[in-house]
Amino acid sequence: MALILNIETATTNCSVSIGKDGRMLALKELNSSSYSHSEDLHFFIKESLEASSLSANDLDAIAVSKGPGSYTGLRIGVSAAKGLCFALDLPLIGISTLESMASQIKQKDGVIIPVLDARRMEVYCAVYDSNYMKLRETKVEEVKPDSFAQYATQGKVYIIGSGAVKSREILEHPNFVFDDSIIPSAKEMCQLSYREFRANNFQNTAYFEPDYLKDFIIQQSKK
After folding, report:
1. CA–CA separation, 152 vs 204, rounded Å?
2. Number of neighbouring beta carbons within 10 Å of residue 139
3. In terms of pTM, does the model score above 0.85?
4. What is the rounded distance in angstroms from the CA atom of residue 163 to the CA atom of residue 177?
5. What pLDDT, on a 0 to 100 scale, did the predictor assign at position 35?
6. Domain ranges of the chain
7. Average pLDDT of the chain?
């Protein structure tokens, strides 16, 4: 049996779940543009454990969304996950933010392209088939009229996530299907983290870093 705490803070959604052998026992999340992760995350962890009638000492592993996504959000989630791993002597599991988003789409064919807004006309994106096999590496990409055209000519392309808004304005092929309502959530992490746990695919807790993909940019005051 594996009891895993899952933490997702890569975007505006601060999300925590408890999974038991891939089945979700509890979920606590809040999607807020105010990015209140630093205030909410540890409270959500406590609530999720209580809702599952568990203590932190019952856990077998900690899983965290490893990005890409918000620099600050990722730092908060990873710092919390590392702290718990060190304190409880538990293994750390890293889960791709985009893969967990793709797993929310249930289709028998076509490809799934999760896209997260990355400022200006850029998105963080990856490409998966309907069985969630990765077809292309995760990267930052500027959305252009010919973006993802090679997939659209072969069938349906499901573009999901916050980056779907800007993508819809530019991509015109009829095979594109846009859904900007899908956000990363710890709910989908339960099965993914259990898969990694069974494979003993753990991170080096001391050296683990999120997949930022872009450098952190400090906005300078114009005053």
Report:
1. 39
2. 12
3. yes
4. 13
5. 76
6. 3-96+184-198, 105-179
7. 94
Q: Tell me the backbone φ, ψ of residue 38, rounded to 5 degrees.
A: -65, -30
Residue range 69-107, pLDDT digits in tens = 999 999 999 999 999 999 999 999 999 999 999 999 998
Helix, strand, coil % in the chain, rounded to nearest 5: 30, 30, 45
Q: Which CATH architecture has domain 3-96+184-198?
A: 2-Layer Sandwich (3.30)
The candidate with the shortest Cα–Cα distance to 205, out of 96, 71, 80, 56, is 80
Amino acid identity of 221?
A: S
CATH fold of 105-179 reads Nucleotidyltransferase; domain 5 (3.30.420)
SS3 (DSSP) at 196: helix
Domains 3-96+184-198 and 105-179 share a fold: yes
Mean pLDDT of the region 170-190 = 97
